[in-house]
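To the structural biology subgroup,

Please find below the input and predicted structure for HNH endonuclease family protein, which we are adding to the shared reference set this quarter. The sequence is reproduced verbatim from the submission form. If anyone notices a discrepancy with their own records, reply to this email rather than editing the shared folder directly, so we keep one authoritative version.
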Amino acid sequence: MVLLAGCESIPDVDVPASGGSGAPAPDGRAASPLDNPDGTRPGLAPVRDAQERAEAAALIDKVATKGRGPKTGYDRDEYGYAWMDTADGVPLARNGCDTRNDILQRDGQELRFRSGSDCVVVSLTLADPYTGKTIEWRKQKAAEVQIDHVVPLSYSWQMGASRWSEGKRRQLANDPLNLLPVDGSANSAKSDSGPASWLPPSKGIRCAYAVRFAQVAVKYEMPVTKADKETMREQCGV
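Predicted structure (tokenized):
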């Protein structure tokens, strides 16, 4: 979990965006995680039917388990600075726009950019998957929308990332698969929790959240705790 912190000053004038990068409309449309394995499509749609739940269960079953290790030595800087555009091996890297703004553009609608920029988002409308709310976000109140690491970086550190290469940690921190713009208060409540300790307030999205958590864990060959895996299975009716 990382707070949405601007690295650019806010200008007096902004300009409307010409498009929304295929992002979800404020009515909550979004891609199912099962149809979005690389995280480049927007949002987090519910897992709805029995076939999808079976697919979800099969994915979650692939996740290994182990005990959560100590947080000793963890520092956000171990994952590179936030938000870099140079984390190799992930979609959207080196496109001239930092990860934070890439994710805002991916999921936001009615985007407005800083004057003279086609990257820095200063306002948007977000259909928040965690709470089901529609948020009219302005950069002047940046913390109202935060970029969530679905698998928190501190959690990953305790589950083995402390022994990863710096390049792999940078990938995790900037991978669109592991990033969602969400309601700031919900993200703050989550902190560095796994699914056994925190789930999105919107119950209808919890299986999809478990799927996304599993997708990240499988991609990075990262175990989760036994309690977290059991909770993930429960959300998908397994």
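Summary notes: The two ends are 27 Å apart (CA to CA). The helical segments are 50-61, 99-107, 153-158, 166-174, 184-190, 206-219, 226-235.

Regards,
Lab coordination
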